[in-house]
Amino acid sequence: MNRPVGPPDAQSPAVGALGALDAGELAADLVAVAVFVALGRASHHEGGVVLGFLGTLWPFAVGAVVGSGATVLVARRGDRPLPASSLRAGGIVLAATVVVGMTLRRLCTDGGTPVSFLLVATSFLALFLLGWRWAARRWTTRPWAGRATARPGR
To answer: What is the pTM for the complete model shown?
Structure first.
């Protein structure tokens, strides 16, 4: 299949679904990662509130951005659109967040990556990175979604 070289036009499925990094979805992913870091630091009673938080956050935030960028590439290469709020996109972001985040944490910070942390981090990030997508999908597929009228029962 021959595809034009260069950026996709406004009518291409990749642009319609995810032509560039979607700021709203990326923001939701970064909030999920920030909550993960905040809860983890609080549960271990770690000090250095701002700098410690940022020092723990940055490897996973970089991973989330890499994952979001990967979803753009997958959307542009595929024949099917890949909305950023899809569970498939969430899986890509999750994988990149964990792999890149753990790698950067191990190589560039003094943070360790024991198996227990890997399991807890992956579980929490999966719950939040996939969870908000599941909730958004569930909400938008409701019969009353997108209508100006009140929801049934109200």
So the answer is: 0.75
